Amino acid sequence: MTKHTLALSDAIEGYFIHAQACRLSPQTLSGYNWALRKLEAYLGPGTPLAGITSTQIRDFLNSLNSPS
Questions:
Q1: Which of 12, 15, 21, 33 is deepest in the core (most CB within 10 A)?
Q2: pTM for the whole thing?
Q3: 6: helix, coil or strand?
Q4: Domain map of the chain by residue range?
């Protein structure tokens, strides 16, 4: 039997289903969508959720403050 690994992109999709069911405001959903899609682009959509490290998150957040 193989262990299923949840991809970041699948986790994001699941989160938005939950967030919409919780009736978060459109502005909140838009902000979360922007941030999570940026993270997904930074790490790659096939990135296993369980493999994401605090260093990767820190580097991502630092990249948001870097000039493009």
A1: 12
A2: 0.81
A3: coil
A4: 8-64
